[in-house]
Design brief:
With 171 residues, this protein is mainly beta. The protein is built from one helix and eight strands; from the N terminus they run H-E-E-E-E-E-E-E-E. The protein has a domain of 110 residues: Beta Barrel (Porin). The N and C termini lie far apart (120 Å).
Amino acid sequence: MSLWPPPRSARHNNRRPKLPLILGVGVGVVVLAVMVGSLLWGEEEPEPEEPPAVVTDGIPEEYAGSWSGEMSQHDEEGNLVADWVVQLKLDAGTDRGSAELLPFHCRGSIVLTEQTAESLVFDYAETYDPEDRCIDTSMLTLTQRVPGTLEATWEGISREGTVMTSTGTLK
């Protein structure tokens, strides 16, 4: 018989090595420090884009008056759909005008929604379409590059879901 007890096995006493636990906690602390550091010292978020210019004075004098011209309408693939004539009436200082689309016999009102140094953007709402041939709502952009003429881009979606774009020069 021995005075010393026999050596015990660590295999059955629920003791586990502490190294993986220590490494796991250490990695967690490092990840947390990196996250906090990136929040505090990281790059600043980019400035949000400026909103479109707000309409302030209505339709400028150089855009006011009666305008007409031929428009060429194309579908999404660039195929010619129709050539048509538009007549616009724009009153200086207001935010409204009228449009007549010939030979479709369509009429509508246009409301100024955006004004920049380069262009005016209008929402078009149909008010008269006896043959049900026109797009009910669309967007008209007018740009005056040469005094006395307006470059027009008219964009809308047909009842069938096709994006239509018409472009032309108005005088």
